[in-house]
Amino acid sequence: MVALSTRQKLEILADAAKYDASCASSGTAKRDSRGSKGIGSTEGMGICHAYAPDGRCISLLKILLTNSCIFDCHYCINRRSSDVRRARFTVQEVVDLTLSFYRRNYIEGLFLSSGIIASSDYTMEQMVAVARSLREEHDFRGYIHLKTIPDADPELAHQAGLFADRLSINVELPTQAGLERLAPEKDGVRIEGAMAGMRHAMEDMGEARRKYRHAPRFAPAGQSTQMIVGADDASDSAIITRASSLYDRHRLRRVYYSAFSPIPSPSAVLPLRRPPLLREHRLYQSDWMMRFYGYGAEEVASATDPVTGCLPLDIDPKLAWALRHRDIFPVDVNRAPREMLLRIPGLGVKAVNRILASRRHRRLRLDDVARLTTSIKKLRPFLIASDWRPVQLSDQADLRSQMTPAPAQLDLFS
Ligand code: SF4
User: Fold this and answer.
1) Would 251 be classed as within a structural domain?
2) For residue 331, what are the domain limits?
3) 56-67, pLDDT tens digit by residue?
4) Is the CB of 197 under 6 A from ligand 1?
5) Whose CA is nearest to atom 3 of ligand 1?
6) CA distances (Å), 159 to each of 24, 94, 155, 231, 375, in order?
7) Residue 174 in contact with ligand 1 by CB distance below 6 A
8) Residues 292-297: what's their mean pLDDT?
9) Looking at the 3D structure of the chain, how many domains does it have?
10) How far is the centre of ligand 1, averaged over its atoms, from the C-alpha of 67 (Å)?
11) Which atom of ligand 1 is nearest to the CA of 64?
12) What is the pTM of this model?
């Protein structure tokens, strides 16, 4: 194999890491300042943005240790049978890159994933060695997110948690059938077993820290996972149900949804077209409903189409749910409990908190609510205020069409 420079490896291994959404940055147009015009570039390799536990947006060096892999997951560009250029960093190279990017203020942390080389244990040892060297030899205080390998020795995952802020394991596909078809070497039971092990370690170490101030921290930013959407025929309803069970059973901080994107030299079992990106967005909205608005998975799933099991793309899932459950509306903003206010389409957590604070002092009018939201038109049919009472929703047969954004001509040249 031809020896590659660090820059060439970075090109290959940062590009290979972009398919992992669990620390996502949004795409943008390519620009750079070569030719001495302007400053800056949007093409820098390997830097993406993520949110720290305190809500700060941080830049991370996002790379793979290697894009070689002994597994052959059909949806993955790095699979064994894929015809791509391979590269591999040494532990020292990743450490040096992280430190030099950090010193130049390019990044505030590292997101490190890897294909599986030789064995799961060997790969995990290499990743732990990177995190250990950064923390112990260089006293690196920045953010570290390590992707762990479910088959690796639990002791290695434990060590990873002592050095990393966040750990994640991808469940990859929402159903066991999908996993068996598209990632036959992966085992859903082992993946969930590894998540359960991390959850217990986090709880044990958290308990120890409550008793002993100097007990070590274990993955203080928790664990997360990613599901690929649209590579198999799993419905949104199945995805929502799986995500909810992962949140409940393993106390995940986040489930990320990644719309399957066709890869170069794809496997014949994959669909030819990617699902609409809006589907991914609707799943994030439904996830938000479960995490912040108090909906159960079965409630969110009730907003899906009964035939396809998928969320509508033209309206958001909270509105879709409200239209399916018209009998509970309108909700009185001056009397309803918090959990009912959170069900009004278009009212977010902040707006609900402000309604609860304001109504202690006076009765709220429609105008008062309008000041808390961007679209009172969307809310009006669902709420009662001191000067407003809508027609019963069940009497409004055309409500859905009133709420659906008008279709717009697509731009041929965008
Ligand atoms: S194990 Fe990971 S890197 Fe290897 S083929 Fe599967 S998804 Fe890709």
Assistant:
1) yes
2) 325-403
3) 778 999 999 999
4) no
5) 115
6) 25, 18, 6, 33, 49
7) no
8) 96
9) 2
10) 9
11) 3
12) 0.86
